Amino acid sequence: MNSDSSFAIPVVTIDGPGGAGKGTLAAAIAEARSWHLLDSGALYRIIAVVALRQGFPLRDAASLAALCSELQIVFGAGSVTVNGDDLTDAIRTEDAGSAASVVAALPPVREAILTLQQEFRRAPGLVADGRDMGTVVFPDAPVKIFLDASAEARAERRYNQLKNKGLGVSLRALLEQIQERDARDRERAVAPLRPAEDALIIDSTEMSIDAVVAMVMEQIVRKTG
Ligand code: DC
Predict the structure, then answer these.
(1) Cβ–Cβ contacts within 10 Å for residue 123, how many?
(2) CB 3.0-4.6 Å disulfide test: which of 93, 108, 223, 225 passes with 65?
């Protein structure tokens, strides 16, 4: 949706590497403002999971882009169904994240879901979480955040989350997976992970999520009232 009226609808973009706390931050801001939420990473995860289930090679750009137009995606409260299948848990695994990063490097796939992402911009406002929200998808957003944290801190947070769920994982394997995904997301030719020129960069390595939320809320009030 690129009509003039959509430009009046405020968007807060939250970009940054995996595990920096973008999802938690985005959900807190959306709830506090009663704004819509776009988890763009979930879209890439969905494409990757459906492609794997249907047996498409993850680098078959043309088939994957065609697949995008056949997906009926319904986000519910904490759930997602795709063409009637509940994929809520399937898209949240580490493997789904890595596969998402592979399909996300394909320009036809990014192009195929650009408009879909922009259609999430609806009144009274949108919080959009991803890698290229401020640079490519919503370049005119009045508030842009780039949320970073060291790879070690992100691996440790993920490790604790998985441990709390009773899942045994190796911290070192998680760190390696995070570093590999970072490199792929940062070095790809199209829409690489990088802060927009007008983004506020927040390093959350030593910050609590509450402190990050407070800082972003202050920025939103300053920029959008
Ligand atoms: O945020 P996430 O971990 O759910 O994202 C999964 C992958 O999707 C991430 O490694 C790169 C890709 N992605 C992207 O390329 N652009 C986005 N806007 C969001 C995610």
Answers:
(1) 12
(2) 108
